[in-house]
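I had to read the description of the data format several times before I understood it. The format is easy to grasp once an entry is in front of the reader. For illustration, here is how one protein appears when written out as sequence plus structure tokens:
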Amino acid sequence: MKDFNYFAPTEIVFGCGRVKETGALASRFGKKALLVTVPEFPAIAPLYKRVKESLAAAGIEVCHYDGVIPNPTTEVVTAGTKLARSFGADLVIGLGGGSSMDTAKAIAVEATHPGTAWDYLHYTAGPTEKTLPIIAIGTTAGTGSQTTPCSVITNTAKKDKSAIWHKNIFPKIAVVDPELTVSMPAPVTAQTGFDAFCHNFEAYIAVNSNPLVEIMAVEAIKIIAEYLPRAYNNGTDLEARSRMAWADTLGGLTNASAGVTLPHGLGMQIGGHCPQVTHGQALAVQYPEFTRFTWRSAVKKFAVMGRIFNPALNGTSDEEAAEKSCEAVDRFLKKIGLWIDLKSLRVTKEDIREIADCGQVLGDYKNNPRVATIPEMYDLLMRCYERV
């Protein structure tokens, strides 16, 4: 066995109804909390009220920053940072999907360090232990941000989507309450759920994978294959929601240790250049071509995945199961409404050229079993442009 390290310091508070414990959990870290969310809308308003009431009951003063947007930008982070500083926040609570949790992490950095969060990206020394404590409460099941040392932000001026990746932004506590995901619309359920699959599968096949990651990833893939279609078709199926919340959490733990591969690196560039494309869409649009590009370089692991999605492959050779895993992923994408192409996402051929040229800015591509060149990235993306 190869040498490896595994580090996952986040306390996980898992279970239906456990969001009510937010105040008691937050009281460990101070008396002033910055709550970071998207703007309030009717479906989410009761949750915001419950969290604020829990915090108030624990004697915690709350300042609510509701300026989060999908693909959060450096401007969004700086606006939240100004509130955190003027309020004197002791901790930051990210409540929502990956965008809210990532924004909360970036604010926790920028509020306590010189410059901006952008100055502490993955290729720098990163933020120090001065970073404010973070509590992450997810309302989607896919990003895994509640258990990762990652905060994804976009610099619109540079058309660059990148990330802080450092142990000091691991949330202190992750509250994983499956009940909070019940109100997710079907398209969001599909996009975030497929992201959970990508986190786990890419960590599983990654060059940096390890035995612990492999165990967790395979378990998560099994859950997603069975329960994501159920959650997609019936949002009130609490068993499916609970299983997906666990698979999502596993995805954070696997990603935190082994990282992700080619689709995430390219997906970040798609989001940076074309912010109308969600992260889940940016991944789903690539996967039919990504699987065909990569399977020969990780036959045994693609075979495992193929047999999970298509048990009829259990009696076949690894080679056949791996090759046919590509078709199994295609069918799965169709089942959850994510059989999409770049053209329908309003990504132009000119955009594709720019995206491919930036495809090696992030190091995720090096973690793929087959390392892609810029021309290969361009060819892969062009084959995603229009799909029948």
In short: The chain has a mean pLDDT of 97. The first helix runs from residue 22 to 26.
